[in-house]
Amino acid sequence: MIGGGGRATGQHMRSSSISTSTTLTLANSPYALDGDIYVLPGATLTIEAGVRFESNANSTLAVARGAQIIANGTKDAPIVFTSANDTGVYRQLANNEWGNLTVMGSGYISEDETVSNTSTPSATNYADMEGLTPANPNNNDYGGGNDNDDSGSLSYCAFRYGGVASIPGKELNGLSLGGIGRATGIHHVEILNNIDDGIEIWGGTVNLKY
Description:
- The structure is a single chain.
- By secondary structure, the chain is mainly β.
- The protein has strands at residues 11-18, 22-24, 31-39, 44-47, 52-55, 60-63, 68-72, 79-83, 101-104, 127-128, 141-142, 152-160, 165-167, 170-171, 175-178, 185-192, 199-202, 207-209.
- The chain starts with 10 loop residues before the first strand and ends with a strand.
């Protein structure tokens, strides 16, 4: 299990949009997501190593298509996304206590639930990300024709006690990736006690390891 513990009160990031590039610093950690926080196209959210998020139900960090997240922890200073109820003592049956991290890109996807899509990869295919609320309908889409899409990088990140079921069969996974391109880097990621899948990937060309 990736390390990182200790519970404290910190800054609240209330339901809003991040429209300009922003850095979340270790000095101001921990942070609490309060509602859905969207990183909008053109903006980059940078999270310093060691930052901790302690959030409650229905709180999700969503990175829109055309935005980036740079969240690179280290082995000794991981970035931890967890529940406000996480005291560092493992709770076997706990989950569904906050949302997740969702990242949306512009890579090719095969998706034929949307009427205008084809069942084979196409640059015109798009889809609405599963599990997100309709608060930002124009920023819930993923898909396109850029398999080299760069949505940023994630390393040494832990996601614990999360997941939300918006409706049966439409859940937030520990880490949701839609149409992410091969220029995005993801490695050393931990999912602990999520309500649905640990990581779910819809199309794209991203490579993950560890």
